[in-house]
Every structure is written in structure tokens, then in C-alpha cells.
Amino acid sequence: MSDKDDSETPVTTEVTPILGDGNCEPAKNSKSFDQSTEPGSKSGPVASTRKRPEARCSNDPKAAEVLPVQASQAAGKEPVSKEVPQTGWGYWGSWGKSLLSSASATVATVGQGISNVIEKAETSLGIPSPSEISTQVQYASEVRDAGRNNILCVSGPFGIFSTISTAVQSTGKSVISGGLDALEFIGKKTMDVIAEGDPGYKKTKGLMNRNSTLSQVLREAKKKEELWTSSEVTMETDKKTHYGLLFDEFQGLSHLEALEMLSRESEIKVKSILNSLSGQELETLKLELEQLKEAFSLAEFCEEEEEEKKGDEDFTKEITDLFSSLRISSRKVTGVKARNTAYEWIGTSLTKPLAEKEEGEKYLEVESTEQVNKNSIEDIHAFAIRSLAELTACSIELFHKTAALVLHGQKQEVTAVERSRTLSQVTVVLCKELSVLSKEFTTCLTTAGVKENADVLNPLITAVFLEASNSASYIQDAFQLLLPMLEISLIESKTESPQNLEGQRRFDL
Amino acid sequence: MEAIWLYQFRLIVIGDSTVGKSCLIRRFTEGRFAQVSDPTVGVDFFSRLVEIEPGKRIKLQIWDTAGQERFRSITRAYYRNSVGGLLLFDITNRRSFQNVHEWLEETKVHVQPYQIVFVLVGHKCDLDTQRQVTRHEAEKLAAAYGMKYIETSARDAINVEKAFTDLTRDIYELVKRGEITIQEGWEGVKSGFVPNVVHSSEEVVKSERRCLC
Lengths: 509, 213
Known about the structure:
The complex is a heterodimer of chains A (about 500) and B (about 210).
Chain A (H helix, E strand, L loop, with lengths): L3 H5 L4 E3 L17 H4 L6 H7 L3 E3 L5 H17 L12 H13 L11 H11 L5 H13 L1 H12 L3 H20 L2 H15 L2 H9 L7 H19 L3 H4 L3 H7 L2 H25 L2 H17 L16 H15 L7 H30 L2 H43 L7 H33 L5 H27 L2 H14 L1 H11 L1
Antiparallel strand pairs in A: 1-2
Helix pairs in contact in A: 3-21, 4-6, 4-7, 4-8, 4-9, 4-10, 5-9, 6-7, 6-10, 8-9, 9-10, 12-14, 12-15, 14-19, 15-19, 15-22, 16-20, 16-22, 17-20, 18-19, 18-20, 19-20, 19-21, 19-22, 20-21, 20-22
Chain B lengths: L6 E9 L5 H10 L12 E11 L2 E10 L6 H5 L7 E7 L3 H5 L1 H12 L5 E7 L11 H10 L3 E4 L8 H17 L12 E3 L9 H12 L1
Parallel strand pairs in B: 1-3, 1-4, 4-5, 5-6
Antiparallel strand pairs in B: 1-7, 2-3
GO cellular component, one term (chain B): Golgi apparatus
Family (chain B): Belongs to the small GTPase superfamily. Rab family.
EC number (chain B): 3.6.5.2
């Protein structure tokens, strides 16, 4: 969208490791993180080399809670500011605008008192303690001026906040005269959006907000790892555990680079198309593009707790089904193979100690069994990192191929919005798979390393979780890169064959 | 030791659809021949190390492009960042040979301001009985464009190794003579990393000798 640029500018990015981000599992292990950086441990360099830049700010739910209060407070007591900073989700902005324009020029009667309004609004939003609210209100009015700045600060990376608050601000007057419904609605919507959860829009925004591209981040990581490997003269054994090097070996970097290239080109194309349109045509298209964008905010990732590990076929079937609904050949789904290999390996390495034991009894080779176990935790770790790198590289490849096919595939049988939803599902499935896989590997590690010192075992476990979490982030970021291609596909399907499209839509629905 | 190389060259493989680009690359990088091969979507990536002189390795990053016309706009974008290329035609398919001109014209337009060192490859030379393009005319065409000509077969593993290593050596010579230089923002040639302790196999040999003394 044309207004995406604006949302990109006020970004404060900071390099932070992304824990429990998108993937709820690794958060548990955050405590043991510091241990992993100890010099002696193998995972040290792995953990420290690659940090993914992440948009800062507003993980804090309180900020989100306070925000509408501050906003409405400001709206009540201050003149409505019309300079709407159009950031991010233009949908909100335009929605707010239309509300504003539909409202008559009625002067605000602050008869009910702003705190009343807030209280009511807050109750309807289901915020528990009234006393807490009143302190917030007090706080809000006290630091109102500063608060406004705060709003801007908070909204920086998340365009939505500022647009919501602007919407609230701009509608403030009419809201109070016209009843509380609108405010309630805004509030509810706000909460819904916020409640949609971190993964959703952190991911949506995460990538766009960064100054460097994902492949740059990974390339730098790879370089560092190369340097590290070479300076340590450790060679083969250590290379095995370097995620970045392995990711490149599986051509993940190249596919990512190619995907970024397509994404950039498509983005430019979309912008120029939007610039060439005007009036009704533009509005309709914008609306449709917004729908597409919505499909790109991911479903929640942390709700899979109850699912546990499903059967082997499920992942394969799910992915294949999803791709067949994309009308993209599932033969391209290389990730399935990589993932199955990983499971086979886990299967054998889990049963191995048992078999070893039985044989040990037969042949009384106690020493060699210990040797096997000793080797195996490093082996498991190496294999885990390798599998994660491979699965991630395959996923990126999958997205790259999807992008090429979306842009230059056969005639469309599926709408862009449907494709987006399906791809969003694919992303979720892949990330879940990573999470399950990392759990399997750590179980493996724990089992194999019962006799090991925690100082040896924990960093390895942490590294697996960390890489799994990073992998999930890369996949989600790569998914976001697909948006411009689907926008193109949507525009093309509209302009090239309007009649056909209607027919197809009906057919597909 | 795998990770040590002097340079990384990016090579692009182009030519008509179904001339056997992916099969040639797979033979070179994976050492096997796939009887059935799906048409390439957009672009695929492969890599392999090549030892051009004892202890001197070059990492080849090979970009396998789709021959299908519909992906042309994607594949065009990759010419610019390649230092070398294999231009394939199928010796049993005259049309694919006639299209060599077009391929060269297209690359010329899109590679600016850089240059690609091309080798012309007559592929599927195991199917000599079905040959539609003589070696002589192919060599003539190659010479006209200043290219080398080589005939290969992925199925029977004929000249596959040679096609890639000869091209790599030619590029390496140009790099050594300074006619091709590493440039910021250009992915064609990149210097590899040389570990600071073990420099090359010569040094390894030296140190071993020292140990013997």
C-alpha cells in the first residue's frame, strides 16, 4: 500500500533475541540463556552470532490498555486534530475519517464528563478494576501532554496504534454527542486487534520495520560464523552446529535473496499501479488490498498446546492439502521430505539406547555403550540444528517457488485472498512443526544426556530451542515477503479478465 | 576443510526449455542423473567446490533458470549478478540451437554494465543418432561469439565436469589478470574466506614436513 512507507519511517529497531516470539516454547528456556553464552560451550557462538532485529516497544499490554484512555482523554479536552498521520493499516485511518465526515459539526457537549465516558467504555471492554482505571485516567490527564508524545512513541513501530488513537481523537466530539456506541466499538475493535496477539501483528510489522533485510541479517550471521569457524580451526565438527552455514548449504540464503528480489519488484509495481489509479477505482482496489493484508496477519501460534504431537502423516497431508488448494504442485514441497528424515532419525536415536542396552547385556561391552551415549548428545544436537536449518531453508524455498508461481503461474483458479489465507495456514503449520520438532530433539537430548552434567546439556538444549525460535521467525518473515506478489496477482486478476474473475469467484466460494 | 575457498563465482545456466539444464547441474553437483525431472520454477540454486589448482578451490554458486517463457522476466533479473554462464542447447533439437542467438542478445541487454563469460554447451550428446546440429556448425557459432564449445551428456556423464571446470578456470584467469574484479554490490565474484591459521594445502604440507624433521 502507498501508506506503508509512512509506517516504515518512524521505526526504532533494536537487536534483540526473539524469545518466545511466535513460538511459545523457547520462552520457557529464557532463563538458561545466559548459561549458553559461556565460552566453553559449543552453543555459545551459535547463540550469540545471530540476533534478529525486532521492532521494539509495546509488548507491554499495559501500554495498549492505557492507550485508548489517553486517546479519548485527549479527544475530550483538546480540539480535534485533523492532520491524521496515515500510518500502516490505512483501513483504520480511512474508517476513522469516514466516521468523522459522517458526523455533523455538532459541538462537543462534555456534559457527561469524560471520565464517565471512559469508565463506561472501559467496562464494556471488560477491563476489570475501576480503581485501576481511575488511576490511569488521573495519570493520563496529568501527563497528557507528555502522553500524547508517548502515543506517538508507542505507535511508531505499530502504525495501528496511532491510527486508532487518531480515529478516537477525531471522532471524539461526535462520539460524546452521539452516544457511546461508536467509542465502544472502537475500543472493542482495538482490544480485538490487540488481543489478536503478538504473533499477528508483530510479524506483520516485524519485517517491514527493519532497516536491513532478512537475508542481510542471515548473511552477516553466516559470515560471522565462517570467521569464527576459520579462526578456531575447528573445521568439520563445529561446522555441523552452525545454523547459518547450514542454512546456506541448503540454499536457504539464495532462495531468500531471490524471494526478496521478487518481493521488492512486486512492491514497486503495486505502488506504481496504485499511483496510476484514482477515484472509485482506487478506493475499491485499496479496500480489496486491505482484505489481502488482513489475511497476512497470522493466526495465533501458541494455541497448539493441546494438540501435542500428531501422526506423521498429518503434517505431510496438511501441507500437501494446503498446496493443492493453492493449485501449486505439491511435488515442490521439499520440506516434507526434510522433516520426515528428521523424524526417522529421532525415531532411531530414541530407540538406539534401548537396543544398545540389550546388546550390551549380551556382549558386555559397557564401555562402548557409554561411548555411544557420550557421542550421541553432540550428535543429536548437531543433527537437530541441521534439521532445523534444512526445514527452514526448504520452507523459504517453498515460499520462493510459490512467489514465482503466483506471479507467473497458470491462470488463476483461486483468488489472491484465498491464497493468502492458505499461505498463512502453511506458515502456521510449518512453525508448529518446528516447535514440535525442537521438542522432540530436546526430549532426545534429555534422554540421551541423563548422566551428563547440566552445564554440558543445558546449552545444547537451549541452542536447539533458540534456533527453532529463530527458524520460526525467518519463516514468518519470508511469508510476509509474499504479500506484494499476491497484491499483483489480485490486481492482475481484476484488470485482465473481470468477467472471468466473477465466474471463478462464484465457483470457488 | 570444505568451507575454504579462494573465490566464489556465480554462474548462470540458460537455454531453451527441456534442453537439460537442471539435469546437467544435478549431475555436476549431486553426481546423479534423474530420469524424470520437473520443469524448473523460476530459479533454483546449487553449489559445489571446484579445485582448479592443487589447494586452490573455487566455490561455484550455480543458478539454474527456468527455460519456460513465462518465467523469463524472473530469470532475466539474474543475469546481472553472474560472472559466467553455460548456454545450453539440445543437439537433437535444432530449434534450441537456433534460439542461441536470442539468448545471447537477451543477456547482452540485461547484463549491463557487466559481462558474462559464456560457454556454449551442446547437451545430450549421448543421443548422437538423433543429432540435428553438427559439431562443426556449433563450433562456428561459438567462435563467432567468442565462446568455447563443448558437448556434454548428463545421462552418461560425458564432459560434465570439464564444462564447469574449464569455464571456472577461464574466469579465474580473468580475475587473476585483473580483467574481472570484485565489486561492491555485484555478486558475480566474491572473495572467499581463507582461514588465518591454515592457509592452503601447501602450508599444511610444509608444517607436516616440519613435524617430520
